[in-house]
Amino acid sequence: MEKTVTIYKLICTAAPDHSLEGESCSLAPWAERDGCSGYDDGGREYVLPEGYAPGKDENGRAAIADVSGRKCGLILHNGCPIVVDRGKKLAVLLEPAKKIMRAREARGLERSRLADILGVTQKELFEWENAEKRPDEGTLRAIAEALGCKPADLI
């Protein structure tokens, strides 16, 4: 079974040290700190690569660890989260969890059939399935109804 983590894109809009402003990512949502202000994107689920698991750092905060329990880094590159394993000198781009696609496949539906049911193009459905875009609330409800699940199961 694949392991997933929720990763938040953090946007620091103002900080005493301007080098802290901009985008980063974290396993925790935005929290006001050190005079910085900003927000997060609400978080998205990502699949961890084989050999990595959610864990805790020495301060009890959420972290990603390798099989030996060593904490790995997490950075944002071109808007995508990357696990940095300094021990192996390796960086791994994380793949979004594809919940809509997995639910569709579990129901035995072809993408073209679900797109027809929803009245959308296969391209739109592909973008939602691959977390390239997020469907609006009404569309998410329609997808969930067509797949026989709850909208929360798909986000």
Description:
With 155 residues, the chain is α+β, with helices and mostly antiparallel strands. The protein folds into 2 domains: 4-96, no CATH class; 99-154, lambda repressor-like DNA-binding domains (434 Repressor (Amino-terminal Domain)). The protein is 23% helix and 34% strand. Strands 1, 2, 3, 4 and 10 form a 5-stranded antiparallel sheet that branches. α2 (111-118) packs across α3. The longest helix is centred in the C-terminal third of the chain and has 11 residues, at 137-147. It is globular and about 50 Å long. The two termini are 18 Å apart. The mean pLDDT is 91.
Question: What's the gist of this structure?
Answer:
23% of the residues lie in helices and 34% in strands.
